[in-house]
Amino acid sequence: MLFLSLAAVGKLDVTGPHGARRAGPPLVVHAEVQAAIDAGEPVVALESTIITHGMPYPDNLHTARAVEEAVREAGAVPATVALLDGVCHVGLATEELTRLAQLGRERVAKCSRRDLAAVMARRGHGATTVSATMLLAHLAGVPVFVTGGIGGVHRGGEASMDVSADLTELSRTPVCVVCAGVKSILDIPRTLEVLETNGVAVAALGASEFPAFFTRSSGCAAPLTVANPHEAAALVLDPRCGARTHDLPISPQISELRGRVQFCVFQTHARGRVSRCTHCILPSQPLLHSTPLCHARPYTHTHTHRGEIA
Q1: b (16+ CB within 10 A) / e for 266-281
Q2: DSSP 143-157
Q3: Which residues lie across from 164 on neighbouring strands?
Q4: What are φ and ψ of residue 51, in 5° steps?
Q5: Which of 107, 133, 183, 188 could be a cystine partner for 103, CB 3.0 to 4.6 Å?
Q6: Measured distance CA(256)–CA(187) in Å, rounded
Q7: pLDDT in tens, 143-182
Q8: What residues are labeled active site?
Q9: CB-count burial class (<10 Å; 0-12, 13-18, 19+) for 289
């Protein structure tokens, strides 16, 4: 067996197009992104897994462009992070974004931090998850990263040890992650416990409750609350915080779907156990109209235990 950390990967001589520069490992920072960083202007990092693994072409390209445009409309420069031909990019040119979208999941690896070295070594293509995006954004000097939802502790994680690398990355890479909480299929209470243990500041924007990705409410109190973006910025930028990582969940605008989403999750989790699966796997279509396999109850710590789903 070979165990390799990213720090063990040597620097490669990479010269990028579009006036880009080299930085650290084979990392190309797009000229527009670098100019904004040098001028002290706002830059927002974006992940790329949603582009290659979240939806088919050309919907993925339209979505990626729309997200970048939304960042621009808010007054910042978007920096989509990905790997092309073994080179890490922070910020993609128009043709590079199109190429990534066309390659799709069959030819692009889904890259967490641990996968970066292998994809770079074989000169492959990679779409970055939360952990890899955080790392590369930090190396490029981008302090803010926006995504849909982060990974966390899977239901039954106390037995399977299935815990997302995103949580470890949040504890060691000083990037503010703005998101809609953790994905709703996960064990939210245990995820918050791990974040607390790892010393990650978690602050909900304009809400007292931690969101559940699709919905405003999860049944879990937010560890911290900031009333508005100004308070959020003050928390992130305060030098007394030691440039530690912050997770800033933003509550979605949907509140009435909480019960239905939880019901689908419980139902699917129960179905996975009936088929003796070791992980909760969501089907491609929601189970809103399927025959109930479990009784949906308010989400608590105990619902990840085997005896709580009948």
Answers
A1: bbbbbbbbeeeeeebe
A2: -EEE-S-B--BBTTH
A3: none
A4: -70, -45
A5: 107
A6: 20
A7: 999 999 999 998 888 888 999 999 999 999 999 999 988 9
A8: 47, 183
A9: exposed
